Amino acid sequence: MGRPKTTKTSQPNLTNTSQMLDWYRSMLLIRRFEERAGQLYGMGLIGGFCHLYIGQEAIAVGMQSVKQTGDQIITGYRDHGHMLAAGMDPKSVMAELTGRAAGVARGKGGSMHMFDVEAGFFGGHGIVGAQVSLGTGLAFANRYKENGGVSFTYFGDGAANQGQVYECFNMAELWRLPVVYVIENNQYAMGTSVERASSEVQLFKRGLSFNIPGEQVDGMDVEAVRAAGERAATHARSGEGPYILEMKTYRYRGHSMSDPAKYRSRDEVDEVKKTRDPIDHLRERMAALGMADEAALKAIDAEVKKVVADAAEFARTAPEPDPSELYTDVYLEA
Amino acid sequence: MSVDVLMPALSPTMEEGTLTKWTIQVGDKVSAGDVIAEIETDKATMEVEAVDEGVVEAILVPAGSEGVKVNTAIARLSGEGPAAAPAPKPVAAVEAVPTAAATVATSASSGVSSADPEIPEGTPFIRQTVRDALRDAMAEEMRRDPAVFLMGEEVAQYQGAYKVSRDLLQEFGEKRVIDTPITEHGFAGIGVGAAFTGLKPIIEFMTFNFAMQAIDHLINSAAKTLYMSGGQIKSSIVFRGPNGAAARVAAQHSQDYSAWYGAVPGLKVVAPYDAADAKGLLKAAIRDPNPVVFLEHEIMYGVEFDVPEGVDWVVPIGKAKVRREGTDVTLTAHSRMVGFALEAAEKLAEAGISAEVIDLRSLRPLDHETIVASVKKTNRLVSVEEGWGPYGVGAEVCQRVVEHAFDWLDAPPTRVHGEDVPMPYAANLEALCLPSVDKIVAAVKSVTARG
Question: What are the CA-CA distances from residue B122 to residues A269, B134, B136 (Å)?
Fold first, then answer.
């Protein structure tokens, strides 16, 4: 197995205009959707925990462009962005957030537990680190079925300290399972910074003692994400076993809606927004490459705005589940 | 001074074994640590070492002898030192697996009640251990459905820590019989993830005590995902292994998890008593589209019962079984405790008390209709379980009876259960801790007022 290496610069000209516009649209959709979700939460329409993906959009979107039909995605509770990137209907995702019958899980999962098997999206899991074992199991099934699929298993810098992650690293490499572990290192596990929680803060090295190759990637740069994702997926798909991508990123909002984020300064957040924002970065890249058609971008802005407004309206007005739904989906008929 | 070498107990639950081979002969001088013989049990082959020096005077049990009882003199040394008792040295030891109660019956009978599927006229029955019945269930289902696979610690090359998976690797290969590292949390989650895609894993825990490391995936991942996904994602998966108290393995290895899993919606929980149920219910569990926790009992593995042969024997989950009919009191039990209840019923009959014995078999769903119907006939209930009483299976059974048959009760429902303490190691304390036939008899007499 190769040694971990670091890739910090994006590789130019990997992509064409239509790909970049798709990315732009997808990232903007996540940003606007999450902003609206925050607003609906403030209005009391979304309950419980609500973890927003704002700032991390380039990861879900860049990796999605690597995913092939038959591959799977699984993540933790910060999952809205992944679902939208996977192509799930914003209306049914937003309706799930408001707990309506038309929600993607019929209103029974909520923000943290959403699934769409057709989109290859296996959740949405609320227990920190559990999705790593489950995602490794998806990879196990791919190998068992010899279907050529790859499991993209996402977790954060917090989950990276859970014991089961290392149990699965061991088995994934031992059995050469087709899994790409994507660590979304947004620097804070709730209120605890990576430095305060991890004896080794370079999380791409966490597979070293299992012989799993790892890379650190600028998770604010969608092209870099895509390029690293391709390397990792190729490795996994070709039977070489697991691969770790540490995506350096940042979440703009608190851990959840109820987190005032007093553990970091306003200046720190503003600095990232000003200098590393993934959507601004993509716009600048497109301009630099002569791809930016202002009219096209404006059209996308308007379209996304409408999609999100429609989703919010739908989620506000759609009916709640019928009380009889309380007892459905507990067991399947044997 | 001559010293007898005794047949050693190689595990806490071993009663006898086969003396496969002597590696010494009369006249040999042996030193402490020399391998002198090889012994085979149903779980492992072990070498026996001499503890002291001496010259072999006589070999008392010839090689190839089967059923040699523990503590039988097997050879005599002319010793120069004190007693030369042998020390067993496992060839491939399973540290976590001591077994075998001193009081286990090696054979028991079982009836087949109307809750079970029809057995065609003329179907032969074979005598089979619970262990082999479980193995056959897995083998038959693996032949039937390529999506079924077995995963766990020592299930493949070692042939199962308790030999429940014997010969499965040979038949199905390493793709479908998978040895894992010692990593319960991880492989339980991998199993559930695989089940999400439609595979049908059988996850073996060496014991359910170790499943505590993995319980998050049983409950949060396997049991709840169907609901949380609005019916999109199923987990057709079996978690199986020995549960409850073996013998002399103390607190951390002797716990009954029936009530723990029985409390969780989304799980089915099964705890068979005899070999026919072990086979038929395990086949049903493997076919079930829901996650099933399948609680076996180590002390029952070696017990033989009748099992129908040559039929696709599937026992539906969710049906209790009346093991013995009676009129004065209803006894409910599951797993090993069914045998205790049957024995108690026998004793009670001698005292003129007619006890009906219901084998719960399935703890979730619990077949309270069968229990309630029985209590409406007998007017008295005594529940028996190995686990702790508070919040236990018996508490649930009593509540259901109070709810559905209150007016038929002639005495308060009563429970016999493990004492409310961690399992002690000392033999006398352990015996005091567990339910016993005498405790059941006493409980029945207290509610029938014939004490």
Answer: 79, 23, 21
